[in-house]
Amino acid sequence: MATTTPMLVIVAGATGDLAGRIIHKLLQIQSVQVRGYARSPEKITESIREHERFSVVQGQVDDKAKIREAIRGASVVICAYQGYDDVMYDGQKYLIDACEELGVERYFASDWTLEYDSLSLGQHEGKDCMLKVKAYLQGKRTKGVHIYIGCFVETFLGYMNVWDPETTAFTFWGNGDEPWDLTTFDDAAAYTVATVLDPSAVGILRFRGDKKSTREIAQLYEKVYGRVPKLVSRGTITELYDFMQAEKQKYVGQNKWLYMTWFYQYYILNGQTLLKEPIHNKRYPNVQPHSMESFFKANDVSNPKHLIRPL
After folding, report:
1. Structure letter (DSSP) for residue 52
2. How does pLDDT run across 9-31, given as a tens digit for each residue?
3. Taking every annotated instance into account, which residue ranges of this chain make up the domain NmrA-like (predicted)?
4. How many alpha carbons fall within 13 Å on the CB side of residue 156?
């Protein structure tokens, strides 16, 4: 009886939070083997490192020989890098070039969040890399896959300066009724794996767990936890624009994550990077994403472990 060759999936940037969740879910599928690519493989969770269908290649984002070693034989490469030009653009170009050379069928580009196609170069430097990567993939034999999920729930609570568990306060720019597209890390990982297993999935795919305003989220918090949170206005959307530009100047030459949160907020709250139609949830009905209410019910958000910050 003939045996089916396992599908080999490469996850570059294998030590990241989202990467770990994707790998964990991939390894639940008997027909899949996973190979990680990472600078520091020892940071990968031990249960993954010791799994019989997981292996890892250690290398830098610009090590062409190690990259080729890592992706040889793969049909899918997932990039889970996080950073700026040297990693998110140059690093992804090295991966894409190796995919082309070695005949990889599909390349999943980082970074999942926001409908960045709606941005112009220079508006949001955190997304400039992604715009350039998407353009670089055009015309390649290796097909690009771009997954948009809006804002991760955990970074919305932890990095966006919206939720303060110490004061039980939700803060907002605008009038508090501006919507956010919100998806948990686990649900983003589940949709990614569903897309990996679907060979027809190429181009842009959009998935969303929930769409709620800050005011609606505060109401859900009260409903679930029985505590009335404060709602605190920071100012208008126009004032947010001025504030984010001032913050950028304040931290020039330093870690960009220190001010990038305000750029994310501005281009979400002004509606520019909200997810467009169609939303592709129904394409994979086996994935049942969390709403904000179900996330609150399953997690105590006063616990910092649920608040993720990329600093």
Report:
1. T
2. 999 999 999 999 999 999 999 99
3. 8-227
4. 27
